[in-house]
C-alpha cells in the first residue's frame, strides 16, 4: 500500500468532537486496521448504534480493499490531497444500505493512514425502518415535538409534549389555535408556504400554568402516509425570560441607588436630598409610592409613626398631608411590625396575605404590595423607608431587598449627618455664650466630630478606590494603569538602559461563553482569570507597588500587564508563556468546566516611544496580529509591523479623502461617451457603421480618482465578445495604481464599500448603455458587476438596483451581478429572498470564484443562480497532463445539471482554452483575450471584435 503524502498533523478524537453538531454522517476508516476508527453522532444514528463498539462484525464493506477495482488510482488521488467519491455499502437493520460518500486522506493516531468519509446523499432504506427511526427519535427528544396533518389535525406528539399539554386536540387547525396568535396566523402560513421555518417566542397555557415557549413551525412529511405535515418543536424558556427580567430590574435598581446616594451627598440641605433620593429610588424600584417614616413616642410612651417625606407616582394620592398618617399607632394598626423593624429585619409582602385589620388599612390607600426597610441611627431604630405598589401583587426578591437595604443605610447616614451638624451648631451657639461653663461638652462634641470626619475619610478613600479599580475583578483599571505606565516611561527617559514591557491580553471567543453560558458565568470567569494572573505574576491585589509588576483590567475581556525592570525581550516572552500555561487548565464555574485562552501582544520600551500611550496602542495592535495567526499565542510588536499599520492607516485616510473629493466634484451621476476610434485606425466609426447617438444627458465624464476597467467575456462557441466584467481601479496620487486587494478590504471595514459599490454599478450601467447605442449589431451585450458581502446584505440593495436601471435605461437581463459564496452561505434564507427579488427583474446572477470558498453542493441547488465562475486558481493549474481537469469538468457538469452557464476566469494559454472547449465550458475571460482595459480600449475591442477574437479562438464552426 503506498504511503499517503499528507500533512504532518495527526488528528485525535478530542479534536473531532466539534463534528458531532453536523447533520451529515461522517466517519473515519482506518486503512491499516480495516475498521471504523471514529464516527460522529449523525453516522451512529444512521447505523442505529450508540457507539462504534456496538457495531456488529462483518457488516462493513471496504471500498479501499486491495482487490477493489481502481484501488491504486483512488489511493494515488488521496495521496495528492484529492477528494474521491465512492459508493459505500453496509448492513443496517439486517439489510444492505448503500450511500454515496466523499472521501479524503488524513492521518490518525500513531501516524496511521485513514480516510475521512462524508455521506453526500440520502440513504435508501425500508419504509418501516425509517418510520421506526423517526418514532425512536421522537421518544428520546428532550424538546416538545408535535406533528399535524396539513389541515391542522394532530397526528402525534412526543412524551415531553404530552406531559406539558396532556392529550392533544384532534380537531382541524389544532396547531394554529395552540401555537399561533390570530394576528400572526397569516404570517405563519405565508412563511410555511415559502418553505421557511416560522419561529416566535410566546406564552403558552400548559398543565403547569402559563409558560414562555420558543416555538419553531416547519413543513414535514407524515412518516406513515408521506403526505405533507406540519412539525412543531417547542422549548420552555420561562426561566431564561424571568432571569433576564430580574437582571434588568437589578441593574435599574442599582443605578437608582447610585443616583440616590449622589443626591444625598451633593444636595444643599437634608429635605432636598431625601426628596431627590426618594424620587430616584421610587422610579428605579418601579413602585407607586416611596416615603420616609419617623418613629416617635407619645406622652403615654406609645410607639407612633409619622410620614416625613413622600414621593408618589402619576395618578397616586399622597398620604403625607393626611392627619391620620402623622399619629399612626403600631400596636393598633400594624401589630408586630415595630418589633420586627427594631430587630433590623425588612418587611416585604403582599397585602392580601395580611390580617384583616392590616389589609383594610393598606387597601384603603390602594396598596397591593409593600416593602419596609428599617433605618437605624447610632444603633437605634429611627424609622423606616417604605415602598408601595398599587397596581401589582409583587413578590420582592432577596436581591431587591439587599439593594434597597443599602439605600436605607445611606439615608440613615444622611439623617445622622444632618443631626450631627445641627447638634454641632447648637453646641457652638451655646459655647459662644457660656464658654467656660460648657468646656467639657465642647470637647465631647469635638470628639464626635472627629469620629464623623474619620468615617467620612474612609468613605472618600472607598470612593477613590472605586474610581481607580475595576468593580468586578478588583484589579486596577485603565486610568490607574496609565498613571503607572507614565511613571515607568519617565524612568525610561531618565535611564536609557531601563527596559520595561506592556502585554495586552484579550480572551479568545469570550463572546461565545457569554452568549452560550450567560453573563453570570462570563463575569465569574473574568474574576477567576484575574486571580490566576495575580498568582502567576505574584502580584498583590488592589494597588500597584514600585518594584512589582502591574496587572489591570482595561474593560470587557481585555487585560494589560506592565512588566517593570526586565533584562531582555525573552523575559516578556517567558511571562506570556506562563500566562498561556496557567489559563490552559479548565475553570470550574457553577458546576461545569469552562475552557478559554488568550491572545497576547507585547510592546517593548526600547523602541523609544514619545508617549506612554503608544506602547499600549502597539501592544493592542500586535495582539490582533496574534488573533489573526490562530489565537492562544503571543506576538511582539516590531518596526515593520508599525510601518504596515501606518501605511494601512494612511491608505484608509487617502481612500476616504479620494471618495470625499469625488463626491464633492459631482453629486449627480452623469453619463459620458466613449471616444470614437483614434487616428491610428484607418477605419472611422462611420465607415464601420457605428452610430454615435445624441444622448439625453451630460456627456462629460465625472472626474474622480476611481475608474472602471473592463475585461471582455468571450463565448467559446462563436468567438464573440458577449459582455464585459467591470473592475474597480484607484489611481493614487503618490502610489499610482493601487491593487484592489489592498483597498477593497479597507473599504469593507470603513463602510465605504456601500457607496463605492453603488457608484461602480451606476458607472458600469452607464457605459453599457453607451455601447448598446454605439453597437446595436452586437446586441445582446452585457456587463458584470461584483457585489461585496456588505452590499448584498443591505436592505436597500433592490431599490438601488431599480433606481440605477431606471436612470440608465438598461434592461435587467443585460446586467450580471457576481456574488461570492461566503455572502450567500453566511445567511442562506436572507440570500435566497434577495436573489429571488433580483431574479424577478431578470438580472443574471453569478456565483463568483466558485470552488475557493464553502463550495457546499447541498446549498448550491437552493439558490436561483444562472452562472458559475470557475476560479482562476483551477484554470491556471490545468496542465499538459490534465492536472485539475477533473475538478473543472465536475464543476461544468454540475452547472449544466443545474441549468447554469459556466465562465472560466484567468485563461492565459491556448492549451487552457482548448481544454475548456473540450470540457464544454461556454464562456471565458483572461489575458489570452485581453487584460482589463479602460472604456476607450474596450470600445476599440468592440470595433475590432470580429478580427481580434477570431485569431485567438479556434473553433469548429459550420461552413457556408
TrEMBL record:
InterPro entries: Biofilm_reg_signaling, EAL_dom, EAL_sf, GAF, GAF-like_dom_sf, GGDEF_dom, Nucleotide_cyclase, Rev_trsase/Diguanyl_cyclase. The keyword DNA-binding does not apply. It holds the Pfam family GGDEF. The keyword Coiled coil applies. Keywords: Coiled coil. This is EAL domain-containing protein. It comes from the Bacteria. SUPFAM superfamilies: EAL domain-like, GAF domain-like, Nucleotide cyclase. Residues 498-639 form the GGDEF domain. Residues 689-946 form the EAL domain. PANTHER family: BIOFILM ARCHITECTURE MAINTENANCE PROTEIN MBAA (PTHR44757:SF2), DIGUANYLATE CYCLASE DGCP (PTHR44757). Residues 417-462 form a coiled coil. Residues 666-687 are annotated as: Disordered.
Amino acid at each position: 500500500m503506498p504511503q499517503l503524502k499528507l500533512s504532518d498533523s495527526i488528528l485525535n478524537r478530542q479534536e473531532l468532537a466539534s463534528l458531532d453538531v453536523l447533520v451529515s454522517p461522517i466517519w473515519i476508516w482506518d486503512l491499516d486496521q480495516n475498521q471504523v476508527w471514529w464516527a460522529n453522532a449523525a453516522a451512529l444514528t444512521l447505523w442505529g448504534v450508540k457507539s462504534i463498539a456496538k457495531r456488529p462484525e462483518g457488516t462493513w464493506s471496504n471500498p479501499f480493499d486491495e482487490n477493489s477495482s481502481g484501488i491504486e488510482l483512488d489511493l494515488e488521488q488521496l495521496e495528492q490531497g484529492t477528494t474521491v467519491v465512492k459508493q459505500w455499502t453496509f448492513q443496517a437493520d439486517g439489510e444492505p444500505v448503500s450511500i454515496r460518500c466523499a472521501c479524503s486522506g488524513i492521518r490518525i493516531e500513531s501516524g496511521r493512514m485513514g480516510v475521512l468519509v462524508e455521506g453526500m446523499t440520502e440513504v435508501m432504506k425500508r419504509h418501516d425502518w425509517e418510520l421506526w427511526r423517526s418514532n425512536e427519535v421522537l421518544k428520546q427528544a428532550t424538546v416538545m415535538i408535535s406533528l399535524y396533518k396539513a389541515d391542522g389535525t394532530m397526528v402525534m406528539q412526543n412524551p415531553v409534549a404530552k406531559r406539558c399539554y396532556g392529550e392533544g386536540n384532534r380537531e382541524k387547525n389544532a396547531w394554529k389555535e395552540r401555537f399561533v396568535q390570530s394576528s400572526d396566523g397569516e404570517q405563519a402560513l405565508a412563511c410555511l408556504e415559502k418553505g421557511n421555518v416560522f419561529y416566535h417566542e410566546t406564552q403558552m397555557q400548559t398543565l403547569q400554568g402559563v409558560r414562555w415557549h420558543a416555538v419553531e413551525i416547519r413543513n414535514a412529511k407524515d412518516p406513515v402516509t408521506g403526505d405533507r405535515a406540519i412539525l412543531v418543536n417547542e422549548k420552555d424558556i420561562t426561566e431564561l425570560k424571568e432571569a433576564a427580567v430580574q437582571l434588568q430590574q437589578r441593574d435599574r435598581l442599582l443605578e437608582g441607588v447610585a443616583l440616590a446616594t449622589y443626591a444625598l451627598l451633593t444636595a444643599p440641605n437634608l429635605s432636598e436630598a431625601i426628596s431627590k433620593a426618594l424620587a430616584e429610588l421610587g422610579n428605579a424600584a418601579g413602585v407607586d409610592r416611596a416615603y420616609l417614616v419617623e418613629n416617635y413616642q407619645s406622652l403615654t410612651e406609645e410607639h407612633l409613626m409619622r410620614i416625613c417625606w413622600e414621593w408618589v407616582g402619576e395618578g397616586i394620592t399622597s398620604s403625607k398631608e393626611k392627619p391620620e398618617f402623622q399619629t399612626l399607632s403600631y400596636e393598633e394598626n400594624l401589630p408586630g411590625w415595630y418589633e420586627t423593624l427594631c430587630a433590623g429585619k425588612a418587611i416585604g409582602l403582599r397585602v392580601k396575605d395580611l390580617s384583616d385589620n392590616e389589609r383594610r388599612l393598606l387597601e384603603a390607600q390602594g396598596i397591593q404590595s409593600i416593602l419596609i426597610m428599617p433605618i437605624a441611627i447610632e444603633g437605634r431604630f429611627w424609622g423606616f423607608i417604605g415602598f408601595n405598589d398599587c397596581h401589582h401583587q409583587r413578590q420582592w426578591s432577596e436581591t431587591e431587598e439587599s439593594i434597597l437595604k443599602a439605600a436605607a443605610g445611606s439615608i440613615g447616614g444622611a439623617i445622622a449627618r444632618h443631626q450631627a451638624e445641627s447638634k454641632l451648631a447648637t453646641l457652638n451657639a451655646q459655647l459662644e455664650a457660656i464658654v467656660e461653663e460648657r468646656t467639657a461638652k465642647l470637647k465631647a462634641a469635638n470628639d464626635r466630630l472627629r469620629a464623623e470626619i474619620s468615617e467620612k475619610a474612609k468613605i472618600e478613600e472607598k470612593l477613590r478606590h472605586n474610581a481607580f479599580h475595576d468593580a468586578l475583578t478588583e484589579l486596577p483599571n485603565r486610568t490607574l494603569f496609565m498613571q503607572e505606565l507614565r511613571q515607568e516611561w519617565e524612568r525610561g527617559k531618565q535611564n536609557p538602559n531601563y527596559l520595561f514591557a506592556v502585554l495586552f491580553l484579550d480572551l479568545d471567543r469570550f463572546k461565545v461563553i457569554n452568549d452560550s453560558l450567560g453573563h453570570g458565568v462570563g463575569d465569574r470567569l473574568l474574576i477567576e482569570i484575574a486571580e490566576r494572573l495575580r498568582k502567576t505574576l505574584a502580584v498583590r491585589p488592589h494597588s500597584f507597588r514600585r518594584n512589582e509588576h502591574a496587572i489591570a483590567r482595561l474593560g470587557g475581556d481585555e487585560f494589560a500587564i506592565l512588566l517593570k525592570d526586565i533584562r531582555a525581550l525573552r523575559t516578556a516572552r517567558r511571562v506570556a508563556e506562563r500566562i498561556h500555561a496557567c489559563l490552559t487548565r479548565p475553570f470550574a464555574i457553577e458546576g461545569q468546566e469552562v475552557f478559554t485562552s488568550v491572545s497576547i501582544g507585547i510592546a517593548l520600551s526600547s523602541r523609544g516611544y514619545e508617549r506612554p500611550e503608544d506602547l499600549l496602542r502597539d501592544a493592542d495592535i500586535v495582539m490582533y496580529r496574534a488573533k489573526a495567526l490562530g489565537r492562544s499565542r503571543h506576538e511582539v510588536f516590531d518596526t515593520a509591523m508599525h510601518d504596515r499599520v501606518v501605511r494601512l492607516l494612511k491608505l484608509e485616510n487617502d481612500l476616504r479623502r479620494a471618495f470625499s473629493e469625488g463626491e464633492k466634484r459631482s453629486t449627480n451621476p452623469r453619463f459620458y461617451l466613449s471616444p470614437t476610434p483614434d487616428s491610428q485606425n484607418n477605419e472611422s466609426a462611420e465607415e464601420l457603421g457605428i452610430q454615435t447617438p445624441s444622448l439625453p444627458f451630460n456627456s462629460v465624464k465625472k472626474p474622480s480618482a476611481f475608474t472602471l476597467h473592463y475585461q471582455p467575456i468571450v463565448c467559446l462557441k462563436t468567438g464573440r465578445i458577449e459582455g464585459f466584467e467591470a473592475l474597480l481601479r484607484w489611481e493614487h496620487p503618490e502610489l499610482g495604481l493601487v491593487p484592489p486587494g489592498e483597498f477593497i478590504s479597507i473599504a469593507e471595514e470603513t463602510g465605504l464599500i456601500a457607496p463605492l459599490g453603488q457608484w461602480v454599478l451606476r458607472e458600469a450601467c452607464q457605459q453599457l448603455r453607451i455601447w448598446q447605442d454605439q453597437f446595436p449589431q452586437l446586441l445582446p451585450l452585457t456587463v458584470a458587476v461584483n457585489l461585496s458581502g456588505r452590499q448584498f446584505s443591505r436592505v436597500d440593495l433592490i431599490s438601488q438596483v431599480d433606481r440605477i436601471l431606471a436612470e440608465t435605461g438598461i434592461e435587467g437581463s443585460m446586467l450580471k451581478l457576481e456574488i461570492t459564496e461566503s455572502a450567500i452561505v453566511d445567511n442562506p434564507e436572507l440570500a435566497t429572498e434577495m436573489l429571488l427579488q433580483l431574479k424577478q427583474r431578470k438580472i443574471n446572477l453569478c456565483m463568483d470564484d466558485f470552488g475557493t470558498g464553502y463550495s457546499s453542493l447541498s446549498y448550491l441547488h437552493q439558490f436561483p443562480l444562472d452562472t458559475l465562475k470557475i476560479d482562476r486558481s483551477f484554470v491556471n493549474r490545468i496542465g499538459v497532463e490534465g492536472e485539475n481537469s477533473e475538478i473543472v469538468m465536475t464543476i461544468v457538469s454540475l452547472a449544466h445539471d443545474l441549468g447554469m452557464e459556466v465562465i472560466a476566469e484567468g485563461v492565459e494559454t491556448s492549451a487552457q482554452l482548448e481544454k475548456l472547449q473540450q470540457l464544454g465550458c461556454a464562456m471565458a475571460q483572461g489575458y489570452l483575450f485581453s487584460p482589463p482595459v479602460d472604456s476607450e480600449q474596450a470600445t476599440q475591442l468592440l470595433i475590432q471584435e470580429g478580427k481580434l477574437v477570431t485569431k485567438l479562438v479556434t473553433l469548429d464552426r459550420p461552413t457556408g
